[in-house]
Specification:
The protein is built from 13 helices and eight strands. The chain has about 300 residues and is an alpha/beta fold.
Length: about 300
């Protein structure tokens, strides 16, 4: 057993809200993952998080629409394999129904465009990107806006905003970054609140990367909520069946987490492979999405 997992003092928990709920869920999920061989009881999990068992149940229901038990089922290997069932055909079907261009690409009603290769090669020189920090169902987020739409979305860990900003700056080292939460707040709301996922208010995403990366990210946008695919299926879809490793690298460089759903790419076995913002967060997002789709009862 790991001796590094310590219970969270109640005083350390912030007030109720999406960030507070996620932080508690994250701690519970990390505890359950580390102790899965012991199959910890809900009482033991609640004690670790620093809340009562009934409050833990309430938190999960409020946050994901699932009980703790159902949430656990949603992040198991068996469930991941279910998500992958027919994964290759998911992408083919998206093309068949006309989702290859701007328009509805998946459940968030996203439209997209790519910045020019010159803008990418210049490291964003001459481009002004506005950023802000906002609450989300998966902890505090950093949102980056280009003049034409959402260009970056990441997460803040351990309150380290400078690290989250530096991660975004590394992607476009010559761009001018201006803090402007008023400009990014509507994008954060539109990305994270399911009540705003409507066709008449599409979220415009600006993809900034190499031609190959943009093609991979466009493919990610075709993976529906409640489904998943594999690196090799994406490679085959792009006509490069031997490029699974290159696809994995491009997925890892996706700057628009959650909206461009790189968390829905799994290993062929269903294993939750690496995720830039942490495997625990990837598990949490997949569990949260299961609650949105009713995939687990």
């Amino acid at each position: 057993m790991s001796s590094e997992i310590a219970p969270t003092p109640i005083a350390d928990l912030v007030s109720d809200g999406p960030v507070a709920d996620y932080e508690r869920v994250r701690k519970a999920l990390a505890f359950m993952t580390a102790r899965w061989r012991d199959q910890p009881s809900q009482e033991a999990i609640a004690e670790h998080v620093g809340v009562s068992p009934s409050h833990l149940h309430h938190i999960f229901r409020r946050w994901a629409g699932l009980t703790p038990k159902a949430f656990l089922q949603a992040v198991t290997l068996d469930h991941a394999r279910e998500l992958l069932r027919g994964s290759a055909s998911v992408l083919d079907t998206a093309l068949e129904v006309g989702l290859s261009g701007p328009g509805r690409l998946h459940d968030l009603f996203v439209t997209h465009e790519a910045m020019s290769p010159g803008e990418w090669k210049s490291g964003g020189e001459g481009v002004t990107l506005r950023y802000g920090f906002h609450p989300s169902p998966f902890g505090e987020s950093i949102v980056v806006a280009a003049p034409r739409g959402l260009a970056g979305l990441g997460f803040v860990d351990d309150g380290d905003r400078p690290a989250a900003l530096a991660d975004m700056r590394r992607r476009w080292p010559r761009a001018a970054f201006v803090e402007d939460e008023a400009a990014t707040a509507p994008l954060a709301l539109r990305a994270f609140d399911p009540a705003t996922w409507r066709a008449e208010t599409p979220l415009r995403v600006v993809l900034i990367g190499t031609d190959f990366e943009v093609r991979v990210w466009e493919t990610l946008l075709r993976i529906p909520l409640g489904r998943a695919t594999t690196y090799s299926d994406i490679a085959s879809h792009l006509g490069k069946p031997k490029a699974a490793r290159a696809v994995g690298a491009a997925v890892g460089r996706n700057p628009v987490s959650f909206v461009v759903p790189c968390h829905r790419v799994l290993g062929r076995s269903g294993a939750l492979t690496g995720y830039h913002w942490g495997i625990t967060r990837k598990q949490a997002i997949l569990g949260w999405e299961a609650g949105q789709t009713g995939a687990v009862s």
